[in-house]
């Protein structure tokens, strides 16, 4: 039996990881056959899913993406409040106008939020929670908005420079 050190010397980290993810034959042809069988099986299973099951899967995927993003320390410009709202509507397979009607919001307001010309109101955030039957809580939507705002606040150089002149005295030390 090889020791861990011997294994680490003999194989790259990628090869070691691959042996755990895809144990079995190292032959590329065998692996391709197995992967193709796996793809075919997934296609068959997904073909048998009802529309409701597909919708639940899509929405769960979106919810987990939001939760992962909120837990991460990093800011991603792509993952704005508007992006996730657009994704929510798209995964429901609705048009913006139809969705706006379902939550009793003016279609223009919804469009402006989606296109980042306007910040969402608290009423919109609450209505998103209610529309999703509390599957996407208002606090989750609010935290997305706050992550956007925190980034904007931290990186708005003009605002920072403008406000410096209003501070007459500041602490002489940093914590």
Description:
The chain is mostly helical and 175 residues long. The chain has 2 domains: 4-47, no CATH class; 51-162, 434 Repressor (Amino-terminal Domain) (Orthogonal Bundle). Helices cover 68% and strands 0% of the residues. It contains 10 helices and no strands. Helix 4 packs antiparallel against helix 5 (81-91) and helix 8 runs antiparallel to helix 9 (138-155). The chain is flat. The N and C termini lie far apart (54 Å). The model has no long low-confidence stretch (mean pLDDT 90).
Summary of the model, kept short:
The protein has helices spanning 4-10, 13-21, 28-47, 51-71, 81-91, 96-102, 107-114, 122-131, 138-155, 157-164. By secondary structure, it is mainly alpha-helical. The radius of gyration is 24 Å and the shape is flat.
Main traits of this protein?
mainly alpha; 2 domains; 434 Repressor (Amino-terminal Domain); 0% strand; flat
What order do the helices and strands come in, and which of them pair?
Elements lengths: L3 H7 L2 H9 L6 H20 L3 H21 L9 H11 L4 H7 L4 H8 L7 H10 L6 H18 L1 H8 L11
Gyration radius, rounded: 24 Å
Largest sheet features:
none
| Helix content range | 55-70%
H-E string: HHHHHHHHHH
CATH fold name of the largest domain: 434 Repressor (Amino-terminal Domain)
Count of helical stretches = 10
Low-confidence stretches at least 5 residues in length (pLDDT < 50)?
Answer: none
Q: Globular, elongated, flat, extended or rod-shaped: what is the shape?
A: flat
Gap between N and C termini, in Å?
Answer: 54 Å
């Amino acid at each position: 039996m090889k020791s861990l050190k011997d294994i680490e010397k003999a194989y790259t980290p990628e090869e070691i990881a691959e042996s755990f993810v895809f144990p079995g034959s190292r032959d590329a042809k065998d692996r391709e056959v197995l992967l193709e069988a796996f793809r075919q099986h997934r296609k068959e299973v997904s073909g048998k899913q009802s529309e409701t099951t597909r919708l639940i899967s899509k929405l769960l995927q979106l919810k987990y993406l939001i939760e992962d993003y909120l837990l991460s320390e990093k800011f991603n410009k792509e993952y704005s409040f508007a992006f996730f709202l657009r994704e929510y509507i798209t995964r429901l397979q609705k048009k913006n106008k139809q969705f706006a009607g379902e939550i009793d919001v003016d279609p223009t307001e919804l469009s402006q939020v989606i296109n980042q010309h306007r910040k969402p109101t608290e009423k919109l955030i609450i209505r998103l929670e209610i529309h999703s039957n509390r599957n996407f809580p208002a606090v989750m939507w609010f935290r997305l908005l706050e992550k956007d705002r925190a980034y904007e606040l931290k990186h708005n150089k003009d605002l920072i420079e403008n406000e410096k002149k209003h501070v007459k005295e500041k602490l002489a030390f940093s914590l």
